[in-house]
Design goal:
The chain is mostly helical. It has 5 helices and no strands. The protein has one domain: 23S rRNA-intervening sequence (de novo design (two linked rop proteins), Up-down Bundle).
Length: 144
């Protein structure tokens, strides 16, 4: 299989974010609203790294890209939950800003790896990658 760009960096950053999120969540109050918000944050934030790990263990470049795309979506979702917590409850604003920066960095890194890999796939097959939109996925599914 081909060499993946930034392989260890994306693994390290996604794992570090998960550890930071777990530490943050453990220090939070246990009221109902906070439990729901931090539960969502924990689920999406730890899912980034698991999808990165699955991508690295994929059987093909297409598997690799698909799993990294899921990881990028989870990073966006994690960013949403951090913003929601920041804007609805009194918390350590600097820690939340740091978590947002980590999420932003991961989104950029994941998107860069995805675009680079897609470009390499296209050049090795001699065709341009097709743009993927939600609607095209639905049409593909319905046409079966």
């Amino acid at each position: 299989m081909e060499q993946r760009p930034s392989r260890s960096m994306v693994q390290d950053n996604s794992f570090r974010l998960a550890v930071q999120l777990v530490g943050y969540i453990r220090r939070q109050q246990k009221d109902h609203v906070n439990l729901v918000l931090t539960g969502q944050l924990l689920q999406s934030g730890t899912s980034i790294g698991t999808n990165v790990e699955e991508a690295l263990g994929g059987h093909s470049s297409r598997d690799f890209v698909a799993k990294l795309a899921i990881a990028a979506n989870e990073a966006w979702e994690t960013r949403y939950w951090v913003r929601c917590i920041r804007d609805t409850q009194p918390h350590d604003q600097q820690e939340l800003a740091d978590l947002l920066n980590e999420c932003d960095g991961l989104v950029k890194m994941l998107n860069s790896i995805i675009l680079t890999t897609r470009s390499r796939l296209a050049s090795s097959t001699g065709s341009e990658p097709k743009p993927r939109t939600q609607n095209s996925k639905l049409r593909t599914w319905r046409s079966r």
